[in-house]
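Following up on my earlier thread - several people asked me to post the actual chain instead of describing it. Fair enough. Here it is, all 176 residues.
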Amino acid sequence: MTTLTSSATFSIGDATTVIEQADIVILPVASVGQGRGRLVHPVLGTYDYLHAPDEWTNLDGDVIISPIWSSSKTLSGSSNTLWMGDIRDTVVEEKWTGALSASLTHLRALLAMWQMPPDPAADYVEWWPSYANALGYKVLLIALEVGGQAISLNYVARQGWVAAPITLRLKIAERI
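Reply from S.P.:
Thanks for posting it. Predicted structure:
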């Protein structure tokens, strides 16, 4: 196990020397994923991605939660506040970016889950980004784009492939 050591000396008037020590356990990040990804819809069932995404945003060993900053104008300038974010504020994107980014079957499975959202008061879609980590999340599928806009297909789709980039946006509700 790796040991981290840090020390510092502070001069405080004529005070006696005090030594403080604290043990901190540093846990490893969740294991690196080897899969392609999975969505579990409460009605439609489980879909194992046919292709892992080429890029993903706000995800590494866990979702990346950004801090929240707020500023309010005051009489003498402004008041700034910064605090830790919450997992429910995080939006993750998965992108399939290749020239033939994914099969039409893959897009249709994502479309079905996006077009039939479960009631968040009752249930969520489960998302398992097994290509990046071993964790699971309850999510809302908030956007699906092909070609950077609404679902835009062309003649290549008749051969079973999507020629434009696919982007799926997921809002994290909680960790499973």
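The chain has one helix and eleven strands. That should answer part of your original question.
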